[in-house]
Input
Amino acid sequence: MIKLFENEYKIFSIVGMAKNAGKTVTLNYLIELASENHIRLGLTSIGRDGERQDIVTRTEKPMIFITKGTLIATAEMLFNLSEVKLEIVEVTAYDTSMGKIIIGRALNDGYVQLGGPTTNQTVRKVSEKMITWGADRVLVDGALDRASSASPAITDACILSTGAVLSRDMNKAIEQTVHRANLFKLEGLKDEAVMDLWDETGEAKGVYILDGTLRVSPLNMLKTALLSGRTIGTHLTENSQYVFIKGALVAKTLKDILESSPYARQVTYVVGDATKIFIEQREWNYFMRVGVTIKVRYEINLMALTVNPYAPSGYFYDSDCFRGRLSEALKDLVIVDVMTL
Output
């Protein structure tokens, strides 16, 4: 796992597929690994983590243990609750419901609670601030159902955490995990002219159709692609080549485009990154089978997969079998059982 730190990437996210998938155990292991190798970390979170008991489920949680010199970015209320002694490095201008985000440096080893910025853009800015203050690498603890923390606009690379908590049926857990990992590895655009046009259309949500000469036609009547598939389909022509979807892409949108246009299969659908795609595996397989092409503007650097073969309700998987089958399906990924580290 030390190889995760031996590259040009500075800001990593750890994304859990569900609660109790082993995300915090993974975070603690990476903190320990960094300390052993004299790598100074910065830590923050989307959401709240590090408390002794989950505030939703009332179950015990692993706490976050940091070493002297570690930087953290957390909300004022949680900064004061941390058991470790912290030196204030910067009080930022970013507000949360628990107070301003404070960047602190640990003066000793101990436990902390993380409750970071509330927007993805602020997460990136705070992470970059910690690098400015001396962090070699920053780890962002992604909150439940906030896979957007894996977005390359926010972090440079990500680690995906999965586990038995997804399903009593190991086959289903493997299926869901492989699908998510494959989405994260989705191919990006290669044509620089098309990439430039994506950038020129701006960050606001919307839909744009490009023809064979790369002339851009914005569908100004649409603020989003959601519930707009038929409208998009009626605007496709035999000359259409790309459809830029700025925002979320869901299965119904694609189904409605396919049903309303004979040209739906000839175009390439482009989204910002894979965190904007909300399509289950069965539907995804259908779209691939009928010839739909989907690409991303920004590729996600999925560096590793961690697995937790134990579920809090008491059942568990055979770890070797679980890891082996995932390794067979995801050959280029480092896969680690966090419960045996």
In short: The radius of gyration is 21 Å. The first strand starts at residue 11 and ends at 16. The CA atoms of residues 207 and 219 lie 6 Å apart.
